[in-house]
Design goal:
- It contains 14 helices and 17 strands.
- It is α/β, with parallel strands linked by helices.
- The protein has two domains: 197 residues, Rossmann fold; 230 residues, 3-Layer(aba) Sandwich (UDP-N-acetylmuramoyl-L-alanine:D-glutamate ligase), CATH 3.40.1190.
- The strands form two sheets. A ten-stranded mixed β-sheet has the order 8-17-16-15-14-13-12-9-10-11, sandwiched between helices. A seven-stranded parallel β-sheet has the order 3-2-1-4-5-6-7, with helices on both faces.
- Helix 2 packs across helix 3, helix 3 runs parallel beside helix 4 and helix 6 packs across helix 12.
- The two termini are 29 Å apart.
- It comes from Sphingomonas pseudosanguinis.
- Its EC number is 4.2.1.136, 5.1.99.6.
Length: 460
């Protein structure tokens, strides 16, 4: 089993095309099915640890994989039974059914087993399961102590993560060949359990991949505070949010953080390393500024609009977050001539771009192309997209991030990466990765201040 970090993510159509290229090169479809089934069976054998296994087989190729799994487990001497929804309907599945020399029970009446392997339906599902199939799957899953899905749990939309009904939760999902969007998008990602990738020899490159540990900028003997990156944080009516962003930028590695505010400077404000000045539009024209972060706590009054206008007109690299996303429009973003990263959560995304429609990946790519910005579409299933279509999907986030200020921390971390000279997509990925790792380090019931401080430890 392969860790998923950095791995390609393919839609159902892309996966079928990748398989077809193998077939065009002379690989028999049954050979690919055998690879998949045997790879799954090796994982199931380890996970089952001698317990009895029930394999559920559907009528298509996912069911064919299931028959190969059962036949292989049988050869290994494991106690295994097969239940099916009916006869196989594809040539490859018919071939695989011939490998299994035991009885095939009806899904409706089969008895449960401690280990359940779901090979009913895989990629390409577009409707809910039949009621009897749904009931049988739910009954058997409830009774099992270990639930394993082959490629995808049955009842999941592979491209958008939609759940077609009350799909059971699984302990492990074994992705075949490549990851699919549903492994990472909500709500389906929430029922996958641990997602593990099995190599079955399918070459894949669809322009989308999973977030991975980035190569972070590091200072050397020639570095100074400006070469490490100068970040300007434009403050507004809620200074706590911009202070969080400033702290995060410094903790993420920026060499110089400038907090620009109209409010009187607070005596003893921390960290002391952050430089605090009154906001002046001309300050943003300083060529030493590697990134401007605007939006956290900005407010939505005329003063806030004026600050946003100054930031957009500066030509400096921008991170646009929070209130700024409520004040700007997509066309104004496009007119900004410098690199830019927008970081909307779901509500801000809808406000800025309208009804998302379809898969979150598709909506985010459309937004990036429309604005010319890298878009970080935040959530438990954060999606990052560049204007050229490159897309990065993130595994399910720490649910304790659902607290005030964590988005401000993310904006500051991304600002530090952008100021350090990373191109916008790389800067966004690095900031999101740092943010996620900091949340893991914090554990449970943390506050945004803890998250910002943890960035230093993650950089270590």
């Amino acid at each position: 089993m392969i860790p998923i970090d950095g791995q390609p993510v393919l839609t159902a159509e892309q996966m079928r095309a990748a398989e077809q290229r193998l077939f065009d090169d002379g690989l028999a479809p049954t050979k690919l099915m055998q690879r998949a089934g045997e790879a799954v069976s090796r994982s199931v054998a380890r996970l089952a640890a001698g317990r009895a296994v029930l394999v559920l087989c559907g009528p298509g190729n996912n069911g064919g994989d299931g028959y190969v799994v059962a036949a292989t487990l049988q050869r290994l001497g494991l106690p295994v039974r097969v239940a099916a929804t009916g006869a196989p309907r594809t040539d490859s599945a018919v071939w695989a059914r011939g490998l299994w020399n035991g009885p095939v029970e009806s899904l409706d009446v089969t008895e449960p087993a401690p280990v359940l392997v779901d090979a009913l339906f895989g990629i390409g599902l577009t409707r809910a399961l039949d009621a009897s199939v749904q009931a049988g799957l739910s009954r058997l899953a409830t009774a099992a102590t270990l639930r394993i899905a082959v490629d995808l749990p049955s009842g999941v939309g592979s491209d958008d993560g939609h759940l077609f009904g009350d799909t059971p939760r699984f302990n492990v999902t074994l992705a075949l060949g490549t990851l699919k969007p549903a492994h990472l998008l909500q709500p389906s990602a929430g029922i996958m359990g641990a997602v593990r990738l099995l190599d079955i020899g399918v070459p894949a490159d669809g322009g989308s991949r999973v977030v991975m540990r980035p190569t972070l900028p590091e200072p050397d003997a020639t570095s100074h505070k400006y070469s490490r990156g100068m970040v300007a944080i434009v403050a507004g009516s809620m200074s706590g949010a911009s202070e969080l962003a400033a702290t995060a930028a410094a903790r993420a590695g920026a060499g110089y953080v400038l907090h620009l505010s109209d409010a009187p400077q607070q005596a003893g404000a921390h960290p002391h390393a952050i430089v605090r000045r009154a906001f002046e539009p001309d300050t943003l024209m300083d060529e030493r500024i590697g990134a401007i972060v605007i939006g956290p706590g900005l407010g939505r009054d005329e003063g806030a609009r004026a600050k946003l206008g100054a930031a957009l007109g500066s030509g400096r690299p921008l991170v646009i977050d929070g209130d700024a996303l409520r004040l700007v429009d997509a066309e104004a973003l496009r007119t900004h001539i410098g690199p830019k990263i927008a970081t909307p959560h779901g509500g801000e995304f809808t406000h800025l771009f309208g009804d998302k429609g379809g898969a979150k990946t598709d909506a985010t790519r459309r937004a990036a192309k429309r604005t010319g910005a890298v878009v970080v579409h935040k959530g438990a299933d954060t999606v990052i997209a560049a204007p050229d279509g490159r897309t990065i999907l993130c595994p399910e986030a720490n649910s304790w991030l659902s607290t005030a200020g964590t988005g401000d921390v993310l904006a500051g971390a991304i600002g530090a990466m952008l100021a350090a000279g990373l191109e916008p997509l790389a800067a966004a990925e690095a900031g999101v990765w740092l943010h996620g790792q900091a949340a893991r380090r914090c554990g449970r019931a943390f506050i945004a201040d803890d998250l910002a401080d943890a960035l230093s430890a993650v950089r270590g």
